[in-house]
């Protein structure tokens, strides 16, 4: 029994019912303290240094939220610049050009070299820099898989960081009614003259709207029932209007006198496109033929161009008058010379890339060899061509029928009119062909576009029987001031040039009178006589009663009639 009492006493002594003083903490207590923070040590207070009084670098007791660990995967691949964006060849040329002796060139040759540099490189080499900063990344094109991976831009960074974007009104400045306008894709029914008069063909009538005064005038109406107006085109001076009809006729009207001057025939089908080049009027027909009319002479038909198998719906002369571009319903674009070659009238270039009818044809005003064309519903592409080399500089999918294209020389942009489904006007930046703005408002497809003489307003005629005026290219005050200064200088130069021109012309005409008493002596050859017996060029006029008469105007080959010059 004694040993059992001893064991119970020993068990009661070893039982830990109360905490042991000065005992080491348990393991779970140590883990909890380490998680909460470092345990205070009685020895740390005695070992303080002089730096303990400084402001702590971080908040005491606040642990770092991110641990610095080695990443398991690399953050991304290295950046390799694009060679074409760096333009190393241009930099090398500019560096080596400094060591070469400077050559003296004539101003004409310098202009030719500058034009070649613009066409080949897209920029002027003389104004290029050896090193330049890259521009900001552009917006990814529509349909791009990853819009964030646009690494660089080939556009040069502008010299000023000022915001250069302009305000483009999204609503039309004015809306005009165009009742009974024909919903025909192949017709050209509107044109804006240099005198700020808009001509609109509404079924069988032609109306003139003055943008300055707002007056409306009905110029003509077809006499036969069922006939309609298929095309209109102003001469450059703005006082004569050419009208194509469904009866295969081309009429020439004097707008000031409201009188038809002449009626030119020769086509076998309706005349759907017209374009002027000085005194030569070119007309395209549904038969696929293009006729050149010399409006100065009685025998007006001077040439026939046969390069299309279907209707010619787009016709434009280049600004310099050297090339004629024609687009047809056969999906072809032909570029014709201004004079026949050894093989006759043969197109210089024929572009076959379009898959639909080509009505939208427009020449670049500042690059005479650049042509823009737009295809119909089956194609829906806008293509930029170099007519000298025949290369397609760019092609963009417009996603709808392209009805018309215009160039803006003020902002180096294009504007195109479209059909279903949005019936919008789109402004494109050249040469990147990036969308600048979309102008919506028409409820039916856009048929034709034309631009005001100042280049600030675009008129769009649509199948919804409305004519909308968009002020999308209005100049800012700085550009307007510079253009006004240039126009004033031109107005001072032109009268002086005209005076010298007529003075030389009069002296040249009067020289035979000083050399002989007779006007046409028989001793002189007939070709040297100032007034020979050969039939001279004349203009065919028609009075209000409709009877035709010849009015002879003494001209020399290649000269415009003096009566027309005096009217302009």
Automatic annotation (TrEMBL):
UniProt WD repeat ranges: 222-263, 305-336, 439-470
Function: Substrate-specific adapter of the anaphase promoting complex/cyclosome (APC/C) complex that confers substrate specificity by binding to substrates and targeting them to the APC/C complex for ubiquitination and degradation. Recognizes and binds the destruction box (D box) on protein substrates. Involved in the metaphase/anaphase transition of cell cycle. Is regulated by MAD2L1: in metaphase the MAD2L1-CDC20-APC/C ternary complex is inactive and in anaphase the CDC20-APC/C binary complex is active in degrading substrates.
Entries under PROSITE patterns matching the protein: WD_REPEATS_2, WD_REPEATS_REGION
GO cellular component, one term: kinetochore
Alphabetical UniProt keywords: Cell cycle, Cell division, Mitosis, Repeat, Ubl conjugation pathway, WD repeat
Family: Belongs to the WD repeat CDC20/Fizzy family.
Domain CDC20/Fizzy WD40: 176-470
Residue numbers spanned by region Disordered: 17-81
One of the GO BP terms on file: metaphase/anaphase transition of meiosis I
Entry coiled-coil feature ranges: none
Recorded superkingdom: Eukaryota
MF terms in GO: anaphase-promoting complex binding; ubiquitin ligase activator activity; ubiquitin-like ligase-substrate adaptor activity
Organism of derivation: Canis lupus dingo
Pathway linked to the protein: Protein modification; protein ubiquitination
One matching Pfam family: WD40_CDC20-Fz
SMART domains on file: WD40
Name of the molecule in the record: Cell division cycle protein 20 homolog
Keyword DNA-binding: no
């Amino acid at each position: 029994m004694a040993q059992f009492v001893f064991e119970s006493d020993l068990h009661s002594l070893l039982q830990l019912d109360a905490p042991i003083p000065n005992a080491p903490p348990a393991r779970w207590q140590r883990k909890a303290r380490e998680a909460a923070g470092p345990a205070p040590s009685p020895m740390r207070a005695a070992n303080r240094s002089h730096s303990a009084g400084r402001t702590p670098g971080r908040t005491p007791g606040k642990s770092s939220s991110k641990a610095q660990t080695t990443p398991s995967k690399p953050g991304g691949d290295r950046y390799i610049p694009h060679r074409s964006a760096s333009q190393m060849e241009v930099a090398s040329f500019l560096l080596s050009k400094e060591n070469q002796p400077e050559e003296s060139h004539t101003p004409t040759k310098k202009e030719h070299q500058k034009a070649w540099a613009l066409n080949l490189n897209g920029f002027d080499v003389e104004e290029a820099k050896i090193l330049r900063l890259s521009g900001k990344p552009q917006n990814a094109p529509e349909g791009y898989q990853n819009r964030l991976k646009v690494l660089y831009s080939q556009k040069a960074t502008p010299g000023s960081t000022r915001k250069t974007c302009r305000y483009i009104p999204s609503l039309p400045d004015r809306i005009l009614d165009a009742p009974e306008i024909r919903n025909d894709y192949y017709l050209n029914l509107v044109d804006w003259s240099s005198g700020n008069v808009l001509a609109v063909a509404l079924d069988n009538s032609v109306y003139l709207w003055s943008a300055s005064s707002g007056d409306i005038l009905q110029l003509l109406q077809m006499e036969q029932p069922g006939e309609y107006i298929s095309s209109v085109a102003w001469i450059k001076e703005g006082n004569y209007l050419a009208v194509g009809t469904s009866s295969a006729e081309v009429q020439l009207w004097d707008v000031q006198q409201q009188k038809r001057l002449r009626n030119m025939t020769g086509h076998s089908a309706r005349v759907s496109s017209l374009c002027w080049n000085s005194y030569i009027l070119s007309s395209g027909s549904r038969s696929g033929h293009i006729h050149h009319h010399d409006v100065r002479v009685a025998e007006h038909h001077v040439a026939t161009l046969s390069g299309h198998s279907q209707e010619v719906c787009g016709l434009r002369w280049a600004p310099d008058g050297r090339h004629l571009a024609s687009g047809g319903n056969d999906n072809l674009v032909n570029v014709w010379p201004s004079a026949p070659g050894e093989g006759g009238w043969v197109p210089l270039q024929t572009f076959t890339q379009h898959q639909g009818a080509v009505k939208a044809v427009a020449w670049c005003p500042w690059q005479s060899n650049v042509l823009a064309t737009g295809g119909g519903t089956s194609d829906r592409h806008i293509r930029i061509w170099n007519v000298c080399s025949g290369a397609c500089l760019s092609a963009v999918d417009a996603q709808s029928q392209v009805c018309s294209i215009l160039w803006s020389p003020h902002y180096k942009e294009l504007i195109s009119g479209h059909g279903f489904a949005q019936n919008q006007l789109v402004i494109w930046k050249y040469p990147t062909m990036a969308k600048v703005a979309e102008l919506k408002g028409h409820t039916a497809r856009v048929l034709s576009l034309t631009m005001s003489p100042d280049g600030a307003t675009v008129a769009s005629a649509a199948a919804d029987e409305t004519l909308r005026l968009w002020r999308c290219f209005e100049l800012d005050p700085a550009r307007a001031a510079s253009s006004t200064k240039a126009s004033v200088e031109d107005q001072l130069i032109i009268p002086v040039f005209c005076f010298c021109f007529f003075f030389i012309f009069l002296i040249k005409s009067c020289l035979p009178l000083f050399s002989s008493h007779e006007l046409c002596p028989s001793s002189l050859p007939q070709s040297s006589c100032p007034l020979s017996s050969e039939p001279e060029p004349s203009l065919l006029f028609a009075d209000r009663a409709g009877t035709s008469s010849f009015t002879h105007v003494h001209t020399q080959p290649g000269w415009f009639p003096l009566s027309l010059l005096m009217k302009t």
